[in-house]
Amino acid sequence: MQLSDLQNLKIAVIGAGYGGAAAAKALSLLGARVDVYEQASRIREVGAGIGLRPATMNRFREWGVFDAIAEVTSPSDYFEILTATGDPIMKEAWPAAGEQTHTHLIHRGDFIDALMGVLPEGMVHLGHKLETIEDRGDSAALTFANGATAEADLVVGADGIRSVVRHQLFSQKAPVFAGEHAYRTVISVDDAHGMVVDDNLRMYIGRGTKIYLLPLRHRGQVSFDITALHPDGTWAPEVTKEDLLRTVEGFDERLVNITRDLDMDTVNIRAVYDIDPVGTWHSDSVVLVGDAAHSMLHHQGQGANSAIEDGGALADALRAAGSVKEALALYQATRKPVTDELQRISRQGWTEDEIDEVFPGQRPATAGQE
Fold first, then answer.
1. pTM, 2 dp
2. What's 231's DSSP letter?
3. Nearest C-alpha neighbor of 363 from the set 100, 84, 88
4. DSSP track, 83-96
5. Are the C-beta atoms of 192 and 257 separated by less than 8 Å?
6. What distance lies between CA 229 and its chain's CA centroid?
7. Using CB atoms within 10 A of its CB, is residue 117 exposed (0-12), middle (13-18) or buried (19+)?
């Protein structure tokens, strides 16, 4: 689109999470007028750590915000998958993207704070819970629970796994329970029983349980995550310390001790859900990004990365195409095959025999191999 057309474009982004904030930053750099509507009264990310892949960090460099993100991260060289007792299964360098080779490990709260910090003042409107969206073809009208209304040439639905935009316009299929719970917290490195010795992610697997140790050494902390099989699909289930200890039976005694020492008030407990692939992500004036479009299981660590890539691809498409309608079709054609595959792979199992299927083209290392 011509620069003048982009500058005249009025864009509403629904949701100020990773996908919404990234899309808002990328779209604002086109010169468009962007408003972000977030249902929460304040931005607060709970949970634990994530890894920002090299391609994602390249997007931040492109947007001029690399340093703001990087200064609250720990750069990591590789990830490692081990048995419950610590025998090596696979050790791989993070996939590089150009000159960028490190994955940057970051606390979710620091990440959303950094993203919010690089958005222009006044762009984000808190306390705006979307109630209805009306697609008018060349524009869309929004109504919010607080009585506010808005209209935009383009609406970006970045409102997560339980997206109102997706439900009202594109798919009424409910999220899918994965038969797992995720228990996430952040502890001091000093409480990690000597298991954090560098800045690399390690995952221990056994009997349907995965334990992730994701160092946040710039904070003197480590993200400690347990994912375990469980039949209870309640979004925020009740779980006791004894329940957690049962899930880690047979693991390295240091991991058991970390679990035993946890303050349960600090543990974020959630049932694990994703969504089936959505057939169409866009109309002429409304488009989905991030979890609203392709929420996936966390086993690949690609949810936040995919949302940020969506924002970049959407801005690229608007710059390249002749109209908003053409841009949305180009964006979907670019991103949907990638995220469909990530959704599929993320649903794969995690036995030792299945690791090669989960990471196609990467052979599991033999025990003791460096």
1. 0.90
2. S
3. 88
4. ETTS-EEEEEEPPP
5. no
6. 21
7. exposed
